[in-house]
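Predict the structure of Biotin synthase.
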Amino acid sequence: MIETLKQIVIEGGTINEEQAVALSQSPDKEALYKAAHQITRHFMGNKFDTCSIINAKSGNCSENCKWCAQSGHYNTVVALYPLLPAEECVHQALHNRQQGIERFGLVTSGKRLSDGEIRKLTETVRYIKQASDIKCCASLGLLNKEQLKELHESGVENYHCNIETAPSHFRTLCTTHTIEQKLETIHMAREEGFRICSGGIIGMGETMEQRIEMALLLQKEQVHSIPLNLLQPIPGTPLAGTPQLSEEEFLTTIALFRFINPDAYLRFSGGRSLLSKETQRKALYIGINAAIIGDLLTTIGSQVEEDKILFTEAGYSLTEETDWVG
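Done. Here is the predicted structure for Biotin synthase.
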């Protein structure tokens, strides 16, 4: 079955939910991992995409996402500050580019930015583009069409908006906005000319079937950059006591995402520090071919030089052009 479904994907076909569930239940995990590896190499070669992010506005978010340290609904230990000055963002962008990182993402807390905040941020982007050739990304919440247009015109190329989880699971984790609003933002951003980056968090109490549901939605939306976060339970949030996924369950999820999204960048994101180096290497073999490196939003990230060694030892090149379409 694994070989048959692998061949369908390699020949340009797609697998359905029933077939993906059957793959997830296969006892021969090594065969599943090997097939996913072959799909990765067939569609993506050895290209590896790196990006870094800066928490450009932190905390006191109006939304009640149960996983998030920045929600104002929960008592968490997180820095609170307004939009950072342009100088700090430019400094961080230059620092990351000097380390060979290809993309720099400006990330803000909150449902969306005000028009005034957008104007400040677009000025910051213009300063970054004048000072460096680093590619700019943004994750600013549920912006409207006019805000997205202004952002794109300033030089931002990629817009990030995670769907977070399966539609059938989302309402159990957040009630202050909907997954439909997220998809509307993604559609508007694409219409404005942005490349789209969208993924989610695994390990938030969802079933394997719901992870497959999320992967199929991202396939339907033709998303080619998919951050896969592993939940880091934050003290003070409702998910603080959530047990960690087994490494096998994590690796199986990576393989299924690769079968369903064969030509996407599957991106190591938050929670990677919870994994052993051996499991990280296995994930890279199976299908992870992108990563957020450096510090993350509210948790410590990775050491850039150590990561570059890890990725190149896995057979990836960090010097290939990695822009995706749409």
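Strands lie at 49-57, 103-108, 135-139, 156-160, 195-197, 200-202, 225-230, 265-268, 288-292.
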